[in-house]
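Subject: sequence -> structure tokens, single chain

Hey, anyone have a minute? Need the predicted structure for the following. Not urgent.
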Amino acid sequence: MKQAPHSRQPPLVLIAEDEGEIADILGAYLARSGLRSARVADGEAALASHRQLRPDLVLLDVQMPKMDGWQVLSELRRRGNTPVIMLTALDQDVDKLTGLRVGADDYVAKPFNPAEIVARIQAVLRRSARSEAEDSTGVIRQGPFEIDLRSHEVTVRNDHQVHALDVTLTEFRLLVHMARAPRQVHARVDLLHACLPEGDAQERTVDSHVSKLRRKLEDVGVIGVPATVRGVGYRFLD
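Reply:
Had a minute. Here:
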């Protein structure tokens, strides 16, 4: 007699929030939506719990004791690609750009509607699941792009036509890196470390490669990709 396969547990959300009442509300809404949660009240505990629990997503408050949210986010990005949604009372564009630059997947300003938070969490988890599935097949599909990680081939669908894009190795690395998080703002310094060979030590080199890549995309009818985020870097898709 065959045993029933083990069902996968619901996603686990790590709530890093020092205001107990807010954490209680978020935990209740997550449970009502079928998601598991764990709670911590300071930045050091957030990092320790992330390593121990390996959550599917971190809900991260900016203003926390011991280590603030930006410091925690920077360390999480050094560790890997766990999705992160920032929570903050600072509703200013500069704060949002800081979070996106360091690598947040989304950003919500307080006060917020808990139901909206849950909806955003579910959306980020769906995007993350799609990215994992694409990586397992060796193909990334974003917008009009299809990027084959094994053959290093890039195709673009535009106006019912399929174009093969002739890209250099560095341009391919840039495309892959940005396509994996298409709506995240990618800072020049991050692209420099992730995509360029060791000899390319200047951030302006990133601009040169992106400019050449953009011209190749314009030749096949894709305009404004990657998009420039002034003073920060680039976003792959709006």
